Amino acid sequence: MELFEIVDFLNELLKVDEWQDKSKNGLQVEGKKEVNKVAFAVDACMDVFEKAKEIGADMIVVHHGLIWGGIEYVRGIVKRRLEFLLKNEISLYAVHLPLDAHPSIGNNAQILKNLDLEPVEGFGVYQGREIGYIGTYDKAMSLDSVLKLIGERINPNLTVLRFGSEKVKRVGVVSGRGGFALDEGIERGIDLFLTGEHDHSIYHLAKEGEVNVVFAGHYATETFGVKALMKVVGQEFDVDVTFIDCPTGL
């Protein structure tokens, strides 16, 4: 399969040109023209690159790429990463905010679907656009039952701030470092806010706003988009696809 056929498909599916994003979304490193195997991962790092080479991947698609705003110097870690990809002719495609926000295969939509919810309301305004979603249960569920679902389907290692109702109906999700959206969530009447990274500033806001907060891990909450995208690429193209799991525990 031609590399740029896959790149063009991803660019259109994810509407990367429509986003203002510090990440340079799209093809960041060009490798072989022909692609037979595509690896998907959360982070562009040597662990992922080396595993991709081991399994014979010609292309890697990640959520967190190598280039954020630009490259100031090609030395040290940056040199070694680029050198490895270029030497082994492995292409690197990165997609950040467009994958967080995608209404069907994005991180936040997929998290809600895994909690038996539909991402029907946009939520979490970041750089002028909503990147998260709110889902509403038809019938309120107990907080404990929702926490159990999150533990089973998202990440068993949770930090929970139980400051809200013991009944949960409206759930807001912004994966990764999503604490900025809590204030908006309180205003919009969510019962539970789910994000990835711990954020000290959230504690008192959640307590005074009387809302439950779950920190489910930056890495864990951002595996969903690349896995969903992997399935789409596997169905669309005659290529092998695989997910490379390199958890950080954070």
Explain this structure:
The chain has 250 residues and is α/β, with parallel strands linked by helices. It has two domains: 3-95, Udp-n-acetylmuramoylalanyl-d-glutamate--2,6- Diaminopimelate Ligase, Chain: A, domain 1; 100-218, NIF3 (NGG1p interacting factor 3)-like (Udp-n-acetylmuramoylalanyl-d-glutamate--2,6- Diaminopimelate Ligase, Chain: A, domain 1, 3-Layer(aba) Sandwich), CATH 3.40.1390.30. The protein is built from ten helices and eleven strands. It has helices at 3-14, 46-54, 76-87, 97-101, 107-114, 143-153, 182-187, 202-209, 218-221, 224-236; strands at 26-29, 37-43, 59-64, 91-94, 121-126, 129-142, 159-161, 167-173, 192-195, 212-215, 240-243. Helix 5 packs across helix 10 (224-236). It is elongated and about 55 Å long. The mean pLDDT is 97.
In terms of topology, how is this protein built?
Elements (H helix, E strand, L loop, with lengths): L2 H12 L11 E4 L7 E7 L2 H9 L4 E6 L11 H12 L3 E4 L2 H5 L5 H8 L6 E6 L2 E14 H11 L5 E3 L5 E7 L8 H6 L4 E4 L6 H8 L2 E4 L2 H4 L2 H13 L3 E4 L7
Parallel strand pairs: 2-3, 2-11, 3-4, 8-9, 9-10
Antiparallel strand pairs: 1-4, 5-6, 6-8, 7-10
Helix pairs in contact: 5-10
Distance between the termini: 36 Å
Strand content: 25-35%
Number of domains: 2
Order of helical and strand elements: HEEHEHEHHEEHEEHEHEHHE
Low-pLDDT segments: none
Amount of helix:
25-40%
Number of helices: 10
CATH superfamily of the largest domain: NIF3 (NGG1p interacting factor 3)-like
Largest sheet: 6 strands, mixed
Whole-number average pLDDT?
97
Query: Rg to the nearest angstrom?
Result: 19 Å
What is the level-2 CATH architecture name of the largest domain? 3-Layer(aba) Sandwich
What is the CATH domain class of the largest domain? Alpha Beta
Strand order, sheet with most strands: 5-6-8-9-10-7
